[in-house]
Amino acid sequence: MIVKPSADSIATAARMAAQGKGLPPVEKWNPPFCGDLDIRISRDGTWFYLGTPIGRPELARLFSTILKREGDKYFLVTPVEKVGIQVDDAPFLAVDFETSGEGEAQVLHFITSIGDKTTASVENPIRVVRDPETGEPSPYVHVRRGLEALIDRKSFYRLVEIGAHHEGWFGLWSSGEFFPVIPSAEML
Question: Distance between CA atoms of 166 and 80, rounded to whole angstroms?
Answer without folding.
Answer: 48
